[in-house]
Amino acid sequence: MTLLRVEEMSIEFGGVHAIEDLSFVIEPGAIHSIIGPNGAGKTTLFNLITGLYRASRGRIMFEDRDIGGQPPHRLARLGLSRTFQNLQIFFRMTAIENVMVGRHLHESRNVLAHLLRLPAVVRQNQRTSAKARELLDFVGLADDADVAAGAMPYGALKRLEIARALAVEPKMLLLDEPAAGCNPVETQEIDHLIQQIAKTGVTVVLVEHDMRLVMNVSTHILVLDAGRKLAEGSAAEVRANPAVIAAYLGAQGQRELARAQG
Amino acid sequence: MAALRQPRTGGLLVLAAIIAVLPFLLPNAYYFDVVILVGINALVVVGLNLLIGYAGQISLGHAGFFGLGAYASAVLPARFDIPPLAALVLGAIGVGLLAVVIGRPILRLKGHYLAVATLGMGLLIFMLLSNEQDLTGGPDGMAVQRLTILGYKLHGVHTWYWIVGGALLTGTWLALNLIDSPTGRALRALHDSEIAAQVNGVDVVRHKLTVFVISAVFASLAGSLSAHYSGFITPNSAGFLHSIELVTMVVLGGMGSTFGGIVGAAVLTALPQFLTVFHEYEHAALGLIMMVCMIYLRDGLLPSLRQRLHWRRS
Lengths: 262, 314
Known about the structure:
Chain A is of the alpha/beta class. In chain A, 43% of the residues lie in helices and 23% in strands. Chain A is built from ten helices and ten strands. Chain A has helices at 42-49, 72-78, 95-102, 111-116, 119-138, 154-167, 184-199, 211-217, 235-240, 242-261, and strands spanning 4-13, 16-26, 31-35, 57-62, 65-66, 80-82, 172-176, 203-207, 220-225, 228-233. Chain B is an all-alpha fold. Chain B has one domain. In chain B, the strands form two sheets. Chain B has a two-stranded antiparallel sheet with strand order 1-4. In chain B, strands 2-3 form a two-stranded antiparallel sheet. In chain B, a hairpin with a 2-residue loop joins strand 2 (148-149) and strand 3. The longest helix of chain B is centred in the last third of the chain and has 27 residues, at 204-230. Chain B is globular and about 50 Å long. Chain A binds chain B through residues 50, 52, 71-73, 75-77, 80-82, 84, 88-93, 97-98, 100-105, 107-109, 111, 114-117, 121, 124-125, 128, 164-165, 167-168, and chain B through 174, 177-178, 180-186, 188-189, 191-193, 195-204, 210, 214, 256.
């Protein structure tokens, strides 16, 4: 069964077509990367899939269910979770509390019980905290559990967001530039982490500018340019596609060359 | 021992100890009166801090809920023969329902817009209480019957001291429970990033409404206690100035610190009483103290002092 199916989707902002007539599918178990130059519509696409934007035309099907127009917290319940390009951390909370928020859907939401601190709430807090600790350990932040998120370095916060998103227990995890601003060592750790996540059966959708990371981990790549699909296929296929080389890799290569030559 | 050092358990014990010991230190009824007023304001502030300090939503109209609670306790027994205790409960339920109706549309607003909308809400309630002369006695106010529990009339500052002290301790316990629960984490999360809270499954609209209702009910109950204690109420208890005072107590004491809010309520309620030695300059002195506090202790009295202590120890 196809996990996500996008059909002829479009969205405009003030007459500008950010995404135009886009169709593609994501199969379960894949590491599906979405690449393209700046302004190609990658983050817009993430915002559409996770319900932050509403498409002006087209359909989004998640597990054969139309999810268009559903608010983000409902989509989280269906099994969609994400991280953000510009960090969206709960800075006033500790690292472990950030991850505990991700367990929200797995906890009882009876406010009266919360007010009275019934024994079930105490036990549930302990379970949530144990699970959060496990996830912090998984992303390599076990020692930072009780550190205020506001005091943590950038690279750690990137991984904290991933741990929080995993706490939702998603079927599909969308990572928006997880390696942006990370040094080569940190990027390698992210690379490893993404493969670990995919191994647990979570489908990973990745937006990333670091081409080495993308080519290394992706089972499938979708190339966007100016809101339209430019190419699609395995890493080898995309790399060999002349349109991609011209419009994206080529252009960037030329710019980098120009910069190198000063 | 470790549990004692937690802000939760330790703080509750300190508060209970202060409430238990204070009567032995207060020299006369005047001081009891001041402390009871502190306790009533603190009860509102503990609820308001959940809304402002934890969830990050402003309300400049909470005195309206306080006033409605007070008038429920005054009007229902006087005009409809409803027993005072039932009136107190009915008032709280009514205010909770009203908070749902008002909160639904206005909690979609943010920042300054929410501030103005809640301000309007407070003014409307104040006008209603002032203008319904037949029911409320209008701007002149009205007398309130004594609170009777099981046929026993409650009067005297000592009795009221224990009632208000018990209510404050209970309210604080409830607030601390909520903060350390999935609901509390969701509220603190949406304070920092509504978007991130949403994609993690938090129904932001519902949670804002929940905390708005809880804080309104806290205010209503405090209003009822205040009405029965003082035996007389005027619409000013629901007025704009009182709303501003309550918000100032939260900010001065420490946003997002339940015990800080109580300290804020204590300082701002008690200080004016003791600043009367400055005669006509008492308001200027109060204003100056507040400004200096905000400049040098920006996180609020309690959180800032705690930080300084930590800093010295390490």
